[in-house]
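WARN no homologs supplied; continuing
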Amino acid sequence: MTSRILTALTAVFLLAVGASASMAAGNGIGPDEARTAAIKILKGDPYGSTAAEVAANIAGQEFATHKLCSPDQKNWVFRIAVPASDRHPDGIRGYLVIDAQTGEMICAGLPFLD
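OK structure emitted
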């Protein structure tokens, strides 16, 4: 009987630890929050002066690793494609990686970002 109680208590403890760990892992930002963060980071010349203009220059978004910025951890990776203009005749192509936990920029392969 004591063995059963000990086994039951151990199982409850392991379930609680597992639930706590999974909740901690789920504290990251979702795709919409990541997109909002990316727009905020990119807003301004040459990526767009409004949120809608910047959003139009986001060519793709995925939750993935990035070989240069986060090879061992998944984060939000955005592909950016700004069309050609007088100032940038070849357009601008690159990437922006947003931390999946904080929403902050990890790194970017884009010009004109601080």
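Helices lie at 2-25, 31-42, 51-56.
OK
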